[in-house]
Write a structure and sequence with these properties.
Length: about 160
Amino acid sequence: MSALLFILLIVMLVVVWYLSFTATRLDRLHHRVETSWGNLDAALKTRSALALEIARSNLVDPAASMLLLAAAHVAVIADQSERADAEEELSQLLLSLLEEEALDSDEEIFRELNSARDRLRIAIALHLEAVSRTQAQRKRPIVRIFRLAGRAPLPVRYPFEDIQV
């Protein structure tokens, strides 16, 4: 009888340890999503700031400057529900601006913008990877049955993460 009780105790300890390990892993994944979102948000704001700087410079024509100024300003002040559209519009304007042959790509601001766009691509990739791993972990039956995610919101992909930056 005591051997059976000992085995049962060992099995219970292993189950508790596994649940604790899984909950800790899930917590780390949620933290990673939050960190990657912070980095992505910073990269978006840097790109918007550079777009504002380009719009205020004399490097582009006045019409393009006004469009860029408006799009960058909207992207900076947009709340979460409007941000996807604002970021997409800014991306399209910047892409069309950078594709123009008339621009002098030797300007420092355009090199900074290209660098910011590269960092933004990396930030989007890291955020999407963190979100997909967290969502996959949360779909596991053991996580749902024992409610190991607690009250943490389910991480989501934002529509502007699919745009070409």
